[in-house]
Structures are given as structure tokens and as C-alpha cells.
Amino acid sequence: MGTEVSAGLFERARRVIPGGVNSPVRSFGSVGGTPRFIDRGESGDLIDVDGNRYVDLVNSWGPLLFGHARREVVAAATAAMQRGSSFGAPTLGEIELAEAIIDAVPSMEKVRLVNSGTEAAMSAVRLARGATGRAKLLKFIGHYHGHSDALLVAAGSGVATLGIPGSPGVTDGAAADTVLVPWNDRDAVTAAIDRHGDDLAAILCEPVPANMNLVPPADGFLAFLREQADRSGAVLFFDEVISGFRMARGGAQAVHGVVPDITVVGKVVGGGFPLAAFGGRADLMDHLAPDGPVYQAGTLSGNPVAVAAGNAQLKLLTDDVYECLQGATQQIVTAFTDAFAQAGVTAQVVHHGTLAGVVFAAAAPTHYDEVAAADHDAYATFFHAMLDQGVYLAPSSYEVLFTSMALDQAAMQRVQDAVGVAAHAVGRR
Ligand SMILES: *Cc1c(COP(=O)(O)O)cnc(C)c1O
């Protein structure tokens, strides 16, 4: 597999872009090797600039539920662009997208559209603070809510991948208002709320955490968080940027039957464009300007092209889509599990509905420290062996794999063949 063109571009990129990438995990820093520069996507495949073809199990980190360049999405975005790419004035499409989100996720009684998950989470935190008049946030270690100051403390995703405990540039003041608790630990939550409850603006979580690999909630844990939020008067904040529209049309809250006060969605909702949203109880959302005093704004928010793509993708979300995605995920989980067993490799293929992740450890992790203690070198070997066999996984053991509706049986066969080889490569280390 040639990588000369990618290697040349990476060198050129590094001269003008820090680390050669516009988001850290893309640099292959934790797995080594040359990041592949992508020429194009074709349905379920990625094709790089050297002409290598991969089955895509990243799908832009989640947004592409239907693979690349799905025709309905392309048509909608193209049509919108021909009418003008941005107006800075309201459009019909924004109402339609807000209505579609609310229809899918009823706890979001009103929504506001923004441009990224980071922006949505940051704005929702300001809203929670503004509405409650309280400052502190309860955050789970290893959960990722974007890269705004208060939420970057002990975050997952690229922060975990690079082993950065927090980040220089985040002030002690911003960090001091974030109370950290291990995921799935009821005693720690109870103790933190006993101590900080009166100052707590929000309890934040990814209801199905997928930025410290995949660590599903223990039975009843989300309902317990609901009770604790009610006990303290804090806002319960579900970050469904990954799980929203991917686990189910109604997100993790529909699957687990727990209703938050504020929800953040991103990724799938934008159909592959920079679009995210936050929403929740109408009485909370009415604190936002211009109705209320909590300020939040955006020149390109509700961008008509992004909104058209989002609307087009959400229209495709029928119940059988989720059955199909679950089937595809199950097939991959079975193939991976069998391959590791055959190769005598100790690995956990963690599986929760339409999400799955690979952790090289003796038991499935229940919180961040157990993910951090896994064998990350084994993952790097596995990742590169899969890449060499033409399967593109996330270049970090803190991330999950994302299936799409574009994975046909031929793609599944390629994944199955690849994992047979890759599992043995890990076994031979
Ligand atoms: C990706 C992600 C974000 C950040 O979204 P961006 O669009 O990358 O800013 C926030 N929360 C979760 C759970 C995510 O997975």
C-alpha cells in the first residue's frame, strides 16, 4: 500500500498548520505512521490521495449515517447553495430542522442551532448557569463536551489520546468551577452533590460515553443522575452529540428512558456539515437572548446549506435504519470477537446498540481509569494492520467505531477478512 502522496502532503501541511491537521486526533499521533489524506468518499468507502481504498468505520466521527455523498443530502445542499449560501437572516429551513429535532427528541421543547458541538455545549452551559444563577458544573472524567475552557478538564477524545490532563490556557478559575467524578460511581456523585449541590448549575454527561472508548452507563445510573439533579436543583445536561440520531432517532434518552433538562446534539444532525444544536425545556430556553438575558449568537448559525443537509439526512431516519445499523454493528462485533478469540488475543469488543469499541483489556471498562490502563500499543498494532488490509478505524484507542447504512455485504466481508489478519498481528506481538 503506497503512502508517498499522503506523506508528502503531511510534510507540506506541517509547515503551515500546527501538527499538519485541523483537529489533533487526525495526526495519527498515538498510533504512529502517516495520516492518510483523503481524496474522496464513495458510499461506504474512503479513497486516499495515493489511490488506496478503505472501508470507512469512522464516517467523519459519526455524522455520516448513510456513508459519503448520499444523493438526497448532496441534492438538498446543492439546491440550497444555488439559492445563496448565507443570509444572516431567518429562513424556513431552520424552522423545519428545529421541528424535526423536537419531533425526534421531545425533551427538546425549543432548540437553537449553532455551528459545532463545542459551541452547543459551551452555550448550553452558559444557559444552565444563567438560568440557575449557580456557577459549578459536575462533569464525569473522560467525557468529552468539546474544547471550551470549563469543559476541557479531564476530557476524553483527543485530550485523552494525547495524555493531556487538562490544557495550558485553561485558567485555574475556569477549572475550579468544574467538579470531577468517575463515571458509574454513585457514591462519588452523591458525595459531590452533598458538598457542592447548592452551587451546582448542571450535571453534565454523555449518556452513553463514547469519547473514552465506549463505556455504557451501569443499570439505573442515568435515572440516578436524574434524581440527583432534582435533589440539587441542577440542570441535567445530556451531551448527545454522538448518541443523538445514532443510537436511535430519539437518542440515548429514548433508549434509556431518562429525560434530561437540556440536550446537545451535533454530528448526525448536520448531515456532514458544521451544524449542532442545543435545546431543552422551554422555560429554560426562554432565558436566551433575545427573549431573555443569556447572550448567545452566531453569524453563520442556522446556515441554509448546512440546515438543508441536516434536514435531508433526518428525513431518511426511519425505524428500519436503526435496525439495519444495529445489525451491521452486531456483525462487526461478532467478527471482531471471533477473530480475537481465534488469535488468542485478550480484547473486549464493547457493544451498546449501534455503537461499538475495541479495548485491549481483560474486562470491559466501567470508568475512565480502566480505559487508560488498557493496552494502547496493542491498539496501534491492530489499527495499522486493519489499515493495511483496507479498513479505516479511528486512529486512537479512546474512540469508538461508527457504522453506516452504506456498509454492504461486500464491505462486511472485507472487514471480516481484515480482522482475521489484524487479530493475528496483535497476537504475534
Ligand atoms: C464531537 C463531540 C463534541 C464536540 O463537537 P465538535 O463539533 O467537534 O465541536 C461534543 N460532545 C461530544 C459527546 C462529542 O462526541
Give a structural overview:
The chain has 429 residues and is an alpha/beta fold. It folds into two domains: 176 residues, Aspartate Aminotransferase, domain 1, CATH 3.90.1150; 245 residues, Aspartate Aminotransferase, domain 2, CATH 3.40.640. It is 40% helix and 14% strand. The protein is built from 15 helices and 14 strands. The strands form three sheets. Strands 4-10-9-8-7-5-6 form a seven-stranded mixed β-sheet, with helices on both faces. Strands 1-2-3-13 form a four-stranded mixed β-sheet. A three-stranded antiparallel β-sheet has the order 11-12-14, covered by helices on one side. Strand 7, helix 8 and strand 8 form a beta-alpha-beta unit. Helix 3 runs parallel beside helix 11, helix 7 runs parallel beside helix 8 and helix 14 crosses helix 15. The longest helix has 25 residues. The radius of gyration is 21 Å and the shape is globular. The mean pLDDT is 96. Pyridoxal-5'-phosphate binds next to helix 4.
Query: What percent of residues adopt helix (DSSP H or I)?
Result: 25-40%
SSE series: HEEEHHEHEHHEHEHEHEEHHHEEHHEEH
Distinct small molecules:
pyridoxal-5'-phosphate
Order of strands side by side in the largest beta sheet? Answer: 4-10-9-8-7-5-6
Query: Any low-confidence stretches, pLDDT <50, length ≥5?
Result: none
Mean pLDDT: 96
